Predict the structure.
Amino acid sequence: MNTSPLPREIDFKGDLFTRHFIDSKSFFLYHFHQLPSITIVRQVDHEKVYRVIKDEFAAHLLQEYHYAAVGRKKKQTEKEESVLLLSDLVIEIGDGYCEFYHNDPEAPLLQQIMKRVLGLRGLHRNKPQEINLITRGDYGLELSKMEVKRTRLNLQHFYNDDFPDIHQTIIRRLNKKDDKGIVLLHGLPGTGKTTYLRYLIGKIKKRVLFIPPDMASQIANPELIRLLIDNPNCVLVIEDAEHIVMQRQAGSDAAVSNLLNLSDGLLSDFLNVQIVCTFNNQVHQVDKALMRKGRLIASYEFNKLTVEKAQRLSHQLGSKCLIARPMTLSEVINQKEQAFRLQERPVIGFRTAGQIEVAG
């Protein structure tokens, strides 16, 4: 009686593509007919890793595939994801990470390449005037690189005298490695919060992730944590964050709780994410837990410019208008723009029980 085990054959019937590019696990199975083990190295630069493998391990490189994009203002393509087939492993290089798919963790080639890649690790710095916009794709939250309009700003001229010292505190902490905490920037519309935010992004040496106003509620989305795990030591910017920072109410505190954990909870201990929130509400409406020492990096209220400040800035901008009242930064800069007012239609009716009934 023949007792030898029956031969087993793996017929590949998987999908080689996932989302927008090659699925590396399926790719490994397709070529080597084995399920892979996976080792990941984070905080590496895509182009540096690719260049090392291309230059130093060319003899083992069999095939390479790239997902690349052409920038709006650049003619050359920039690799966003790469899958490399080597003699006994598959390597995937993405935005800030490198994954090794293999079946022997002690294989000499794997060990050599990993040693070189580990030597390339470091802070994933933000390119000048670039942010990573958090968007919702077909498969969850993802990052889209966006260029930010370059801003040259004299803080002494554009803001009141108490602000430059606050700025120094903010920029020192946001550029500190392995730090955490939250920055709250608030004030009336038109007082320069967004102008300063654009300027600040250009001064931050870390990766900047931006949550647009219409996605602010995603702070409570578990998918965001996955995104932050892949981008440690980053700065998360949340614009128009009123609904996130407001005092908690029954049944609506998930966003605030997540913000607290990210800024000074257990999550913050290994993510090292710093958060910048802008909003129009007054600071007394903010959840008190966000204001705690050790969690709060800085809080600043952008006010109207004093008459003296507004007059000086107006002259520097070439205007000869005489300013007699405090003005927002927007009002000073746009003095020559025509002002438009909505005309209120008169309401005809009578008031009953605190309501207005309109006559037909």
Q: What stands out?
A: The first strand starts at residue 17 and ends at 18. Residues 152 and 317 are 14 Å apart (CA to CA).
